[in-house]
């Protein structure tokens, strides 16, 4: 897997996931929506940890710095 998620992108993904988790645990979002958003939060954290996003690869997008 070639890295395609950069540092700033990782921070943004993690912050979005954190907001989703806080909203779910404070019951601002509930039910099916909460479950779906928590799954999305998990995916965001996972992609930021491994620095690879399969959707971005398909679309040809990369926020990672080019290695020389």
Structure write-up:
With 68 residues, the chain is mostly helical. The protein starts with 6 loop residues before the first helix and ends in a 9-residue tail after the last helix. The chain has one domain (7-59). Helix content is 66%, strand content 0%. Helix 1 runs antiparallel to helix 2. It has helices at residues 7-25, 31-50, 54-59. It has 3 helices and no strands. It is elongated, with a radius of gyration of 14 Å.
Q: How many individual domains?
A: 1
| Continuous helix count | 3
Distance between the termini: 17 Å
Q: List SSEs in N-to-C order.
A: HHH
Would you spell out the secondary-structure blueprint of this structure?
Layout: H1 7-25, H2 31-50, H3 54-59
Helix pairs in contact: 1-2
Quick overview of this protein structure:
The chain has 68 residues and is mainly α. It is built from three helices and no strands.
Write out key terms for the chains shown.
elongated; single chain; 3 helices
């Amino acid at each position: 897997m070639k890295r395609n998620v950069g540092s700033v992108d990782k921070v943004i993904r993690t912050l979005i996931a954190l907001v989703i988790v806080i909203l779910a645990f404070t019951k601002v979002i509930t039910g099916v929506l909460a479950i779906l958003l928590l799954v999305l939060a998990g995916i965001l954290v996972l992609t930021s940890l491994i620095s690879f996003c399969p959707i971005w690869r398909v679309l040809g997008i990369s926020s990672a710095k080019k290695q020389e």
